[in-house]
Amino acid sequence: MKNIEPANNDIKMIHRMTVIKRVIHWALFLALINNIITGFYIAYPFLMFGKSPIQAYSPSIGVLSTGETYQAFIMAYVRYFHFIGAIVIDVAFFVWLYLAFFSLKEPLYKSFMPFGDKMNEAFRMLKHYFTLKNKPETTRYQDPFNAIIFTFFHVLIFLQMVTGFQMYVSSFTGTSVIGGWWPWFMHFTTDWTLFVFGGLTGVTLAHLFIMWIIMIFIIYHIYTEVWRSVMWKEGDILIPFGGYKYTKNNIEAE
Amino acid sequence: MRNGNKKTRHVTKTNKPSDSNTPPKWDPLRRISDNSAEVLKKVDERLDSLEKEYFKDKGDKDGNMGNILGFHGVSRRDFLKWTAVLTSTLMLPYVFRQRVARAANILTRTPFIWLDMSDCMGNTEAFIRTAHPTPAEIILNYVSVDYMESIMAAAGYQAEARRVETIRKHKGKYILVVEGSIPTGLGGKFLTIGAKGETGLKITKEAARDAGIIIAIGNCASYGGIPAASPNPTSAVPVSSVTHRQVINIPACPANPVNVVGTLVEYILVGKAPDLDNLGRPLWAYGGRLHDNCYRRGHFEAGEFVRRWGDEGAKKQYCLYMMGCKGPFTWNNCTTVEYNQDLSFPMRAGHGCIGCSQPAFWDRMSPFEKPNAEAKIFFPAVESTADGFGLGLFGAAGAGIAAHAIYSGVKRERDKHKEGKGKKEEGKDKKE
After folding, report:
1. Residue A174 and residue B391: Cβ atoms within 8 Å?
2. Closest residue of B to A184, CA-based?
3. Residue B215's pLDDT is what?
């Protein structure tokens, strides 16, 4: 009963996202935007720095400054920010993985148990998206349909992590300032991507392609939350900001 | 050239890395022993016994190298410089340079079998057709090749007999060099060699069984190369796939003579294969990425790229990443050891690396003159670039979302309209 606003009988507030989850959410958001932009640059360096204007032969390739090579360090900085973003995403991933099982408030695995019922509910949610009828009841846990989507998203993040570390470790020669275990560990955990995607070039292309799927997830996610807020009028869009949403069901209380 | 025992103190005694939990990736003493004096003793013993075996007397031994190199106008001084270079290329301690010279001397008398399987024989050509050969190439020209299709005088049954005899006579001692991949389709019938028409598969298997060491030269022998490129009509496989024995891969197209001679010299010195990476390549040669040792790397970090052949950036030797350089995906020592009489390598010549020392480079590294991001990715029924296919999916998803938004808007309005009409019915539903 803690979650319920006593003054309101019809509309109740439920706590959905803890502070740490909201921090993860926005850290992921910023880091993903950062890594998409810098990643595009690394794959296809569209900006030129320190160039003579002769090289700028197309509108997409601008000249930002003219100068000598030693004055420009753009690719190094872009890769640097890409790595920082990657570390943020990876840490967020592991915290998410931990919280998915051990969160006190809202562990994700609860959205999958019992499995048959929850899959059924997810299917009903999918049906609801198209029929706009029979809205499944939203509880204080993640609804199963979103839980599936978010799990898939984190699988993508995991793939980006292993392919990214495989590309990262390729510049190592077996040593590191933090010890030889670090490149060894990266090889040990990510060398399987070479066999799955076909060499380092294949790993690079997989990294690039999965980025597109993550972008599709982002627009899907924003759209869905806006759609839910508009159609359900339960303030779903407010969850990552305040941590609360409203609900009209009475079952919520438990 | 002899007796380096006095200089033992130059060699560091322990080569253990700071953290003993992880195995050392690279051991300059070749894992012979932890004690450097013992290593030198063992190497010297091995060299002594080999010299006794392959040279008639002292005059033969001491005059051999002078005869060979003098004929090509290489002075003793040039040779000694070269041994120092090879010693450092092999990442051996400095005291080994006399031993490297001795090993090069022994190498010219070591029995060899050089098999040419399905390939263009570009590696052979690279070694024997140099105008101003370096000692590495000269030594390769003078190795005691008992069987090599492209240069041997014998022909027909005679040549076959020579190979069989060498295998029998020098069992466990001869060096087997294989060049070219081995077709296995139709029981190997895609490649038959010699008067008896034996398949390359059979010849390689026979020669590999009793070889002292097996070296696969060139990308074809190492990883299948171009004959094994998709769709691989002859089912060509690398040498390592037809034998159970260890194969040292010296890939690249053609392989660098320095890497070949270095591996052979190390075999003479140590008697076993060097430390190999997970693709079977000697670590001392293939431990570093081209991209990391490239002299154009600074321009990569500065974001300065060649955009078109012959543009301003090309004249200023900017990074060739945008012209499809596959240096970031390729492990080799081209950038430090260099090709063509130690003169140049692809990036110095103004063209990007094509990744010829990586497995399946013909399939995985193409298009050679476009950045990797423009390579095709293959899904069932889809052949497109990663960005092209990704953008297509992104557009489809966007269209789907827009359609759903319109649909739900329209549907809600319609439902509301209906609701107004049939309020009583809904009320009934609610009660139920």
Report:
1. no
2. B22
3. 94
Q: In Å, how far is A110's CA from the nearest CA of chain B?
A: 29
Query: Residue B158 and residue B152: Cα distance in Å, rounded?
Result: 11
A61–B307 C-beta distance less than 8 A: yes
What is the C-alpha to C-alpha distance for residues B213 and B139, in angstroms, rounded to an integer? Answer: 18
**Identity of the amino acid at B162:** R
A174, closest residue in chain B (CA to CA): B25
Q: Which of B98, B118, B101, B179 minimizes the C-alpha distance to B145? A: B179
Per-residue pLDDT tens digits for A44-54 = 887 655 454 55
Which of A121, A179, A188 minimizes the C-alpha distance to A148?
A: A121
pLDDT tens for B346-388 read 999 999 999 999 999 998 898 899 888 888 887 777 788 888 8
Collect all residues of chain B within an 8 Å Cβ-Cβ radius of residue A179.
Answer: 18-19, 22
Is the minimum CB–CB distance between B17 and chain A shorter than 8 Å? yes
Note if the bond before A114 is cis, omega within 30 degrees.
yes
Residue type, A104: L
Report CB contact under 8 Å: B18, A179.
yes
pLDDT, position A116? 87
Distance CA B287, CA B289 (A): 7
Contacts 24+ apart (CB under 8 A), A150-158: A150/A108, A151/A108, A152/A217, A153/A214, A153/A217, A153/A221, A154/A93, A154/A96, A154/A97, A156/A210, A156/A213, A156/A214, A156/A217, A157/A89, A157/A93, A157/A214, A158/A93
Tokens standing for residue A45? 């360096």
ipTM given for this complex: 0.84
